[in-house]
Write a structure and sequence with these properties.
17 helices, Growth Hormone, Chain: A, mainly alpha
C-alpha cells in the first residue's frame, strides 16, 4: 500500500488524532494531583516533602515501565499496547479517590505510573509505523500537544470538580474518561483491518526496515555504545526534569507564592499549558518546513532545538520578577519552549534509532528522563521547604543551557548504522 495514497494518509491522521486524545487523558490523569495539592495536603496532613514522595512513587514506576513499555510496543505494536495502557491507568486514577494517607497515595501513584509508562513509547512507535521522516515530527508534535492540552484542561476541570464535590471526586471523574476512549480506538482498528487486510499495515516502518537491512542491521547492544545516542538521551533527561517541575509544582506555586486562589487557578493556569501545546505544534511544523525547504534534517532539528533552549532559559526567570502577571507570562514562555524542544528531541531520538529498536530506545530515553525527574523531585520538596522556589527555577534554566550544549556535541542527527566495511584498493 503506497504511503502517499489518500486513504492511507487519512487513516494515518486518524490514528494520530486518537494518540493525541490518549495523550490528553494521560496528562489530565497525572496532572490532577498538582491542582488538588493544597486541599489534599490539608486533608491527608502532608508536607511538601511528603508530596514529593508521592510524586516520586509515580515517577519511579513510570521510569521502569518506560523501558518495558518500549519493548512491549516493539513486540506487539501500537494497536494493542495503547489499549492495555489506557485501561490500566484509567482504573489506577480512579483508585486515588480512596487514598487515606501518604502510603495509600503512593500506592495509587505507583499504579498510575505502571499504566502510563508504556503510552509514549507506544505512541512514538505508532508515529514510526504510519509516517515517513518528513512528516513524522508533525505527528509527534500533534500527540505531544496532547500533553499540553491535558495539562491546560486540568486546572479548570479539576478546580470546578473540587469546588462542588471535593478532591476525591476529581480523580473519579477524570479517570473514567479513559474507558470512553478505548472503544473508539478498537473500532478504528477494526476498520483498518477491513480496509487494509491487516491491523497494522505500517508501510512507512517497513520501508525504513528495508533501508536499514540494505545498509547493515545494528544490534541493540551496539546502538547503546554510541556516543550520539547517549548525548541526546541526557539532553532529553535534563529538560524532562524541568518539565516535571512545571507540571507538578506550578499550580501550587501560584497558589502558595503568588497568591492565586482556586478560582484564579481555574481562570488563568490553563494558559501556560496552552502555550506548551502551541510550542509543540510550532516547533514540529517549523522543523518540518525547514526540511522541506532543503535545510536538511539535522540542521532543521538543531535550529529549532537551540532556539527553544534559549526561550527555556529566559522563561525560567519567572520567579525573579515582582509582578504575578509577568511571572505567568514567563512561565508561558518556558512551557512553549519546553514542548517546542520536546517535539524535536523526541523525533530526533526516533531518527537516530534503527527502525526495529525505535520504541525500546525511545523508552530508554524516556526512562532516563523520568529518572532525572525523580532525582530532581527528591531535592525540589526539600529545597522549597527550606529555601523557596528560586533555586529550582534557576536549575531549570541551567538544564536547558546544558541540554543545548549536548545536542551540539552529539553531531549530525542521522540514523545510527553499522560501519561500512573498508574497501581494499584494487591492485
Amino acid at each position: 500500500m503506497p504511503t502517499a495514497s489518500p486513504t492511507y494518509r487519512r487513516t494515518a491522521w486518524k490514528v494520530v488524532l486518537l494518540l493525541f486524545a490518549g495523550s490528553v487523558l494521560n496528562y489530565i490523569d497525572r496532572s490532577v494531583l498538582a491542582v488538588v495539592k493544597p486541599q489534599l495536603q490539608q486533608d491527608l496532613n502532608l508536607s511538601n516533602t511528603d508530596y514529593s514522595l508521592a510524586v516520586n512513587a509515580f515517577l519511579l514506576v513510570y521510569t521502569v515501565l518506560y523501558v518495558w513499555g518500549g519493548r512491549l510496543a516493539d513486540r506487539f505494536g501500537c494497536r494493542r499496547t495503547f489499549t492495555w495502557n489506557t485501561l490500566f491507568w484509567s482504573a489506577a486514577n480512579v483508585l486515588h479517590a480512596f487514598a487515606g494517607g501518604l502510603a495509600g497515595l503512593c500506592v495509587c501513584r505507583g499504579l498510575l505510573g505502571l499504566g502510563e509508562g508504556g503510552f509514549y513509547p507506544s505512541a512514538i512507535r505508532g508515529a514510526a509505523e504510519w509516517f515517513p521522516a518528513e512528516d513524522r515530527a508533525k505527528a509527534v508534535g500533534l500527540f505531544l500537544t496532547g500533553l499540553s492540552v491535558g495539562a491546560l484542561l486540568t486546572p479548570p476541570l479539576a478546580a470546578g470538580i473540587v469546588y462542588f464535590y471535593g478532591w476525591r471526586a476529581a480523580f473519579v471523574a477524570t479517570g473514567a474518561l479513559g474507558f470512553l476512549l478505548v472503544p473508539v480506538w478498537l473500532l478504528l482498528h477494526a476498520r483498518i483491518r477491513r480496509e487494509f487486510g491487516a491491523a497494522d499495515p505500517a508501510p512507512a516502518l517497513q520501508a525504513a526496515r528495508e533501508s536499514e537491512s540494505a545498509g547493515g542491521d545494528l544490534p541493540l547492544s551496539k546502538v547503546l555504545r554510541r556516543r550520539k545516542y547517549w548525548l541526546l538521551c541526557v539532553a532529553r533527561g535534563l529538560t524532562d526534569a524541568s518539565w516535571y517541575f512545571y507540571l507538578f509544582w506550578i499550580p501550587g506555586y501560584f497558589q502558595q507564592v503568588r497568591g492565586f486562589n482556586l478560582a484564579m487557578v481555574g481562570l488563568w493556569l490553563w494558559l501556560p499549558y496552552f502555550c506548551a501545546g502551541v510550542g509543540a505544534l510550532s516547533g514540529a511544523w517549523l522543523s518540518s518546513g525547514l526540511i522541506r525547504r532543503g535545510f536538511g534534517l539535522s540542521r532543521s532539528r538543531k535550529a529549532v532545538l537551540l532556539g527553544s533552549a534559549l526561550c527555556g532559559v529566559v522563561g525560567a526567570s519567572a520567579h525573579f520578577v515582582p509582578a504575578a502577571p509577568l511571572a505567568l507570562a514567563l512561565v508561558c514562555l518556558a512551557l512553549f519552549a519546553q514542548q517546542s524542544w520536546g517535539a524535536n528531541i523526541h523525533t530526533a531520538i526516533s531518527e537516530v534509532a534503527p527502525p526495529r529498536h525505535i520504541a525500546v530506545l525511545y523508552g530508554l530515553t524516556g526512562a532516563f528522563g523520568t529518572l532525572m525527574g525523580v532525582i530532581a523531585q527528591f531535592g525540589v520538596g526539600r529545597i522549597v521547604d527550606t529555601a523557596g522556589y528560586g533555586p529550582v527555577f534557576a536549575g531549570s534554566a541551567l538544564a536547558f543551557a546544558s541540554a543545548a550544549v549536548l545536542v551540539l556535541a552529539a553531531g549530525p542527527i542521522e540514523r545510527i548504522r553499522a560501519p561500512r566495511p573498508a574497501i581494499s584498493p584494487v591492485r
